[in-house]
Design goal:
The complex is a heterodimer of chains A (413) and B (354). Chain A has 413 residues and is α/β, with parallel strands linked by helices. Chain A contains 14 helices and 7 strands. Helix content of chain A is 51%, strand content 12%. The radius of gyration of chain A is 22 Å and the shape is globular. The N and C termini of chain A lie far apart (58 Å). Helices cover 15% and strands 42% of the residues of chain B. Chain B has 354 residues and is mainly beta. The chains are: A alpha/beta (413), B mainly beta (354).
Chain lengths: 413, 354
């Protein structure tokens, strides 16, 4: 039992160190934005897929925004992928197709497997361009975003591209404010540091792009996964394609405004991530493929992020059990020093990362909310652990594939 | 008594836990910093953003500019941003200027309603607008210049924020172009100039490069992207005269020998050397340092993450399909022609052929 606890402590320390490395890199290291200056080019023809399932509240906003982007109109085709919607999404899309017949082509899906990946897979029959961009329906792209997301594809090593997600409704309540801080840390520091250090920036499946030939090479969209973005990241990596992260290619999104929706969302992410961990973890670390050593290590750590929550709970349980059993974990001064050091430095790592991100964004007063992140942490640990347990149980009883769509809060325009 | 201690302990613990949350509670209630991050960065994307904004401002003064051109009147006033402006036809009407660090300081926004040749050693502390052709004297310092025809900057002049010419912009020797410099026609920068961000349909490096025949090598007919991509884990050398159809990715160094041709894009994760007269029809990407020899033709975007050197006779992009050349540090020799954007994030410089 004690060795299991040592292993858990070691893994937690590795993640702590990782947080510090990323934050210090963002604050003091060489920053890579290689493609962001590409403002003039012979821009390729691009298809934009907008995944939409019951999106009547938001679909009009994104289609309107896409009609105003700064990209040659004759080189841009928007395909709203209406996946079995039962609200007025279809009518809204058809109205846009009527208004912009040469620029929007509708794809109405009435049956088939549920899930975004399955819908995108079916929509590929309409796509004949090399560069494909993907947006969820609640996103609002700015005018310059499309060129910024297309620019990395001039690099023949890039198979996927990912932009930065910025919450639009961040001021609504405590949850949206905490999610705003989390997103800040996740993109401004975590993703950009991975880009800087040539590690594994993660494809997020929205505000993102993929090269069609790369997608074809890795076998297309995987509709058996809950997180097609994580799945795509790892399959691209194993086949020698890079995912480029563009920190300055920002796009507004809507974050959940109520806890049950947030919990559902993070549970889906956790299940999908754990699924990818089981599918690709071993192959990534020990397989014969194109990833470099640092990509293998970082990729494995990235795959394990959602496994950390149940592991932390297990660690707490083991520590308590050993304490009451009377087992001495460490001796005397070493124990005191170890616990004190971790309490002072280790627990601070994630907060440090988010604080650095907020500073890099040029914000200040929202840093006051930082201690409240403990609340978000507790909810996440419980939700992610519950997801891991139900997933393990589902594996044994062969539970059916289930997709939870994230609820929208915006009022239809 | 024991109960009292328990209650006190609980109160103390509660206070210690709650104290750090006080600022959070205040911020959540007051929402002093609850706006979404501003992500619409038009000024960062469009090189002509500031020039266009200033042109809009000046457009409101158009009747006064026309009056000054026809009658020679000098008009004075205040712009919406509070800056004082003077509209005049000739430089003789410039107000008396005080000398400051070897330069005569002109503190107003100046609008010339006609062609003008300006004396040297003037510091234009505010924007300068020229309705006609502008020829600046040597050692002038401009905050920003908008020329509705051509602009010629005299030797050792500097532009601090931006300059835009509706036709041609020429920077004579040793100019310092700190901000954004663009032209709707041609842009020529001479030996010894330093630059950051340039954009024009055609950028001539060195005054003689206007005769450089661009587009010497036509694009390969009948080839359409995507071509096959080959990934190499070590260094790669493309031999002299060899023609490669498809894109090349090298995890090590990449070397194109003289006259080699790639119908596709190339990428090196280390240094990239392209020898004389090589041709690349797609993007040229390098994670470290890039050296491009003489008389090369590179048609796609050219990006080096550390530094880049371009030798004379090299042509980047073409008139129909302009491109971007970007790197933190760029050294470019006279005789290079770039169609589109030349962007050095930290420093760009031009050196001569001698």
């Amino acid at each position: 039992m004690i060795y299991a606890l040592y292993i858990i402590v070691f893994v937690i320390c590795v993640y702590t160190l990782r947080h510090y490395c990323f934050t210090l890199n963002r604050l003091f290291g060489f920053q890579r934005h290689p493609y962001i200056d590409t403002d003039t080019a012979d821009w390729p023809v691009v298809t934009i897929l907008v995944a939409a399932h019951n999106e009547e509240k938001v679909i009009a906003s994104i289609l309107s925004a896409l009609m105003k982007v700064n990209y040659p109109a004759e080189k841009l085709l928007v395909i709203p992928v209406n996946d079995r919607s039962q609200d007025h999404t279809r009518e809204i899309i058809d109205r846009f197709v009527h208004d912009f017949p040469a620029r929007i082509r509708a794809f109405h899906r009435t049956g088939g497997k549920p899930g975004k990946a399955a819908a995108l897979k079916d929509a590929m029959e309409l796509v004949d361009t090399e560069v494909i961009l993907i947006f969820d329906a609640d996103y609002i792209p700015g005018a310059g975003l499309i060129k910024q997301l297309v620019a990395p594809f001039f690099d023949p090593e890039v198979g996927g591209v990912m932009g930065r997600v910025v919450p639009l409704n961040c001021g609504t309540n405590i949850l949206t404010r905490l999610l705003d801080l989390e997103r800040s840390g996740g993109y401004q520091v975590d993703q950009q540091a991975r880009m800087n250090l040539r590690l594994v920036p993660q494809h997020g499946g929205t505000v993102a792009g993929v090269r069609r030939s790369a997608l074809h090479e890795i076998g297309g969209w995987n509709d058996n996964t809950l997180t097609e973005d994580t799945d795509l990241t790892y399959r691209l990596l194993l086949h020698g394609w890079k995912t480029a992260y563009q920190n300055r290619s920002e796009c507004y999104e809507e974050v959940p405004e109520v806890w049950p929706v947030r919990i559902k969302q993070i549970m889906r992410w956790a299940r999908g991530h754990n699924q990818a961990l089981v599918t690709y973890g071993g192959r990534l670390l020990f397989g014969d493929h194109h990833a470099t050593l640092r990509e293998r290590l970082d990729g494995a750590l990235l795959l394990g992020v959602y496994a950390m929550a149940p592991m932390t709970i297990l660690g707490w349980t083991l520590a308590l059990a050993l304490f009451y059993k009377g087992t001495a974990l460490l001796h005397g001064l070493i124990a005191v020093l170890g616990v004190t050091t971790y309490a002072a430095v280790g627990n601070f790592a994630a907060f440090f990362e988010i604080a650095a991100a907020v500073r890099l964004d040029g914000n200040r007063k929202r840093l006051a909310i930082l201690p409240a992140l403990a609340l978000g942490f507790v909810v996440s640990v419980c939700a992610v652990s519950k997801a891991a347990i139900s997933q393990t149980y589902g594996y044994f009883v062969r539970a059916e594939f289930h997709w939870d769509k994230t609820e929208r809060f915006r009022t239809a325009s | 008594m024991a109960y009292l201690f328990v209650v006190l302990l609980l109160l103390l613990s509660g206070t210690l836990v709650g104290l750090p949350l006080l600022p959070a509670i205040c911020e959540l209630r007051q929402k002093q910093d609850a706006e979404p991050l501003k992500v619409i960065q038009q000024h960062a994307g469009d090189i002509r953003y500031f020039a266009s904004s200033f042109a809009t401002l000046i457009k409101e003064l158009e009747p006064l500019v026309n009056r000054s051109r026809t009658s020679g009147d000098v008009c004075r006033g205040v712009l919406p941003d509070g800056s004082q402006y003077i509209i005049m036809r000739t430089v003789d009407e410039l107000p008396r200027m005080q000398k400051q660090n070897d330069l005569f300081l002109c503190p107003n926004v100046i609008a010339f309603s006609n062609d003008v040749t300006c004396p040297g050693q003037i510091k234009f502390a505010k924007e300068l607008y020229v309705h006609g052709q502008f020829r600046g004297g040597d050692c002038n310092q401009y905050r920003a210049v908008l020329g509705m025809s051509g602009i010629r900057l005299g030797k050792r002049s500097s532009v601090l924020r931006w300059a835009h010419a509706a036709f041609e912009l020429v920077a004579d020797e040793e100019c310092q172009l700190y901000g954004r410099v663009s032209a709707a026609g041609y842009l020529t920068i001479s030996q010894g100039c330093r630059f950051f961000r340039l954009n024009a349909p055609r950028i001539n490096i060195g005054q003689g490069s206007g005769n450089n025949p661009a587009n010497r090598v036509p694009r390969e007919p009948g080839v359409s992207v995507p071509l096959r991509r080959v990934l190499h884990h070590g260094d790669v050398i493309i031999e002299a005269g060899e023609v490669v159809y498809g894109s090349i990715v090298a995890r090590g160094k990449l070397h194109l020998r003289s006259g080699a041709k790639v119908v596709g894009s190339i990428k090196s994760n280390k240094d990239l050397v392209i020898e004389n007269e090589a041709v690349v029809e797609g993007g040229v990407i390098c994670s470290e340092r890039m050296i491009v020899g003489s008389r090369c033709t590179l048609l796609g975007p050219i990006i080096a993450e550390r530094s880049m050197v371009l030798y004379h006779g090299t042509v980047c992009g073409d008139l129909q399909k302009p491109t971007t050349v970007s790197s933190p540090e760029i050294q470019v020799q006279e005789g290079v022609v770039i169609f589109g954007t030349l962007w050095a994030r930290q420093s760009g410089s031009v050196w001569g052929r001698a």
